[in-house]
Amino acid sequence: MKKVSLFMLIACLIFNVSAIFADTLYLNGGAVAEGKVVQETNDAYILQQGNAWQKINKADVIFSGTNSDNTQRRQIDLDLILKFGRDLSSKANISRSDGLNGMYDATNKYYTGLEFDIRAFSIVYLGLGFNLSNKGYFSVNDSLEYYDVPYYLLVKLKHNTGHQSNLYVSFNLGMHSLQPERTINNNHYRRDEIVKDNSKMYYGLNIGFELKDILIEIGFISAESAMYFYNNNGRNRYDLVNQSVVLSIGYKIL
User: Fold this and answer.
1) What is the largest CA-CA distance in the chain?
2) Which of 164, 193, 236, 244 gets the highest tally of CB atoms within 10 A of its CB?
3) Helix residue spans in 169-237 (DSSP H)
4) C-alpha distance across the termini of the chain, in Å
């Protein structure tokens, strides 16, 4: 009886030790593979999981280690992305206090931006970003030129589609700094005759695909603002909603 008990104790110890030192592979898109790496080549791991073996490409692994290592430190998965974009279509929905309302064409702008995101859990990434663009322009009875700098928080959901590739959906929510440059009409408004209030919401919905360090993305962007114009006839208020469809490409610099 004692021999049986001793045998069972040794078997349990061996099982627990092997579990403690099992290997854990963290994959793109949030998946985790656990088992024992029985073979490693230049481009793949052979992972034993019970009586089954699985080949995992190293290109799909973002972190590897034993369970004992990973209980001491959390995996960090973060990206710093440089983006370049252009409006495919841009409209300005304007409501004016003098009754001149409508939807007008706006300038198709170019963008340069930075985004930083970090995996919070599973397929969910959280981050922040901002964009710089060239001068925008739209015309009603008078013409307005402006600079716009959005800054926002983002939530990104990633789905791993294979060899270092992901599909993702992201949502941006923030503010933007709209800086009117000048207006031109018969009265020749000056820059100091333009005052803007605090109605400056910015949001966007994007769908993208990333392959290794390159990504391509299409998104819908909406930026809301309100401005006051002063002239000899008094004060006019512009409520402006600028909506754009934007195509972007990006590169992960981190």
Assistant:
1) 106
2) 244
3) none
4) 61
Report the distance separating Cα 120 and Cα 143, nearest Å: 45
Contacts of the segment 170-173: beta carbons below 8 A, 24+ positions apart: 170/204, 170/205, 170/206, 170/208, 170/219, 171/203, 171/204, 171/205, 171/206, 172/129, 172/202, 172/203, 172/204, 172/205, 172/206, 172/221, 173/202, 173/203
Question: Position 149: which residue type?
Answer: V
For residue range 8-65, list pLDDT tens digits in order. 554 554 444 444 446 777 777 667 788 888 888 878 888 887 778 888 887 777 766 5
From residue 214, alpha-carbon distances to 82, 122, 123, 246, 249 in Å are 10, 22, 19, 17, 7
In terms of pTM, does the model score above 0.90?
Answer: no
Query: Is the CB of residue 57 less than 8 Å from the CB of residue 163?
Result: yes
* pLDDT of 121 higher than 70: yes
Structural domains of the chain, with CATH: 2-70 (2.30.30.100), 78-252 (2.40.160.20)
Residue by residue, DSSP assigns 16-64 as HHHHHT-EEEEEGGG-EEEEEEEEE-SSEEEEEETTEEEEEEGGGEEEE
